[in-house]
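Dear H.,

Thanks for agreeing to be a second pair of eyes. The structure we're designing against is below in token form, covering all 342 positions.
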């Protein structure tokens, strides 16, 4: 496999810049791995493809408004800090722009009671910063930070993004990007799923910057994934293992849920609860141990996410589905439409 094997043509105007009017009104392309014609539905129809004892696995990670814009305390020069993840002793790993002009030791002021000190330079262009606030630094981030929209959304964050670039079940702050497959679910849709006998398991994987890092080599094996923090609670592992024993299918909502499940499953597909970090890179050929079906959005050409989806459904079948989606006017990427792979 070469990275170029996962390329496809996408007109720029098909990249969604805003969410659909209603979450569950997004379009849904249904792909059956064993062949047959593609089905074109609305996302609210997804429950028609689920059975009692199937288990939906959702990611409760919550996006933090991680984009902080401030000024150097000494000169007033503009500085942008993108928080990536917390490290030891109250420090955060971050990207700082313009990085070459921000020396270690620089104080960046975001508001009267909130600032950051750039402590050190790390590998890969990352920096370590210390957040200083009169109250909880995360509360200060919530007050002054902006939603870190992906680079292919060509606009500044607006009020609508505070709600819609967040799943309805987001609970645990820590992500710098949304687990976007879950953006299509409404509370009503989840309630209907449970009422019909579908189990719901809740996991956490905090999406990091590596999700958007392109594969720069044409040999995917040379690409190193960034680690992302995850948690598989005991209750979630029990629900998933119970669904498997009852003959149900494990339906991951998003590639983030896939990475949690495949990182914590043993060779027999049994889930072991726990927490940690994973740099698992799923690409063809890969034997899935825990996942039977996937709800996902449409991903960038030559991306690690497109490779993961291709590992589940087959590269040629997935690229055929993408050509179908382009031809029939689907909306792509984070705010775009969805696909169900069975």
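And this is the sequence the design step returned. I haven't edited it by hand at all.
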């Amino acid at each position: 496999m070469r990275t170029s094997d996962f390329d496809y043509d996408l007109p720029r105007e098909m990249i969604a810049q805003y969410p659909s009017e209603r979450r569950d009104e997004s379009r849904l392309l249904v792909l059956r791995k064993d062949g047959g014609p593609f089905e074109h539905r609305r996302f609210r129809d997804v429950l028609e493809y689920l059975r009692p004892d199937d288990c939906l696995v959702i990611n409760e990670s919550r996006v933090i408004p991680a984009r902080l814009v401030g000024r150097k305390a000494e000169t007033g020069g503009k500085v942008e800090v993108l928080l990536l993840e917390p490290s030891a002793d109250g420090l955060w790993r971050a990207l700082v722009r313009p990085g070459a002009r921000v020396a270690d030791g620089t104080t960046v002021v975001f508001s009267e009671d909130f600032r950051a000190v750039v402590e050190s330079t790390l590998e890969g262009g990352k920096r370590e910063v210390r957040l200083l606030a009169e109250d909880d630094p995360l509360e200060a981030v919530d007050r002054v930070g902006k939603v870190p929209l992906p680079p292919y959304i060509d606009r500044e964050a607006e009020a609508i993004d505070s709600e819609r670039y967040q799943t309805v079940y987001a609970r645990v702050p820590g992500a710098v990007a949304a687990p976007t497959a879950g953006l299509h679910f409404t509370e009503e849709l989840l309630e209907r799923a449970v009422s019909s006998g579908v189990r719901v398991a809740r996991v956490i994987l905090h999406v990091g910057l590596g999700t958007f890092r392109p594969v720069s080599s044409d040999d995917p094996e040379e690409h190193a994934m960034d680690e992302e923090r995850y948690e598989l609670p005991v209750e979630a592992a029990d629900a998933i293992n119970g669904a498997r024993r009852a003959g149900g299918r494990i339906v991951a909502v998003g590639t983030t849920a896939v990475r949690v499940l495949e990182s914590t499953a043993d060779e027999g597909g049994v889930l072991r609860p726990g927490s940690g970090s994973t740099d698992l890179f799923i690409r063809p050929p890969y034997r899935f141990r825990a996942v039977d079906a996937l709800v996902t959005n449409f991903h960038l050409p030559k991306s690690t996410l497109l490779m993961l989806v291709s590992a589940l459904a087959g590269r040629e079948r997935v690229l055929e589905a993408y050509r179908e989606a382009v031809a029939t006017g689907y909306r792509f990427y984070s705010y775009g439409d969805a696909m169900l792979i069975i």
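Two observations from my side: Helices lie at 137-144, 159-164, 187-195, 234-245, 255-264, 304-313, 315-327. The CA atoms of residues 63 and 175 lie 5 Å apart.

Warmly,
E.
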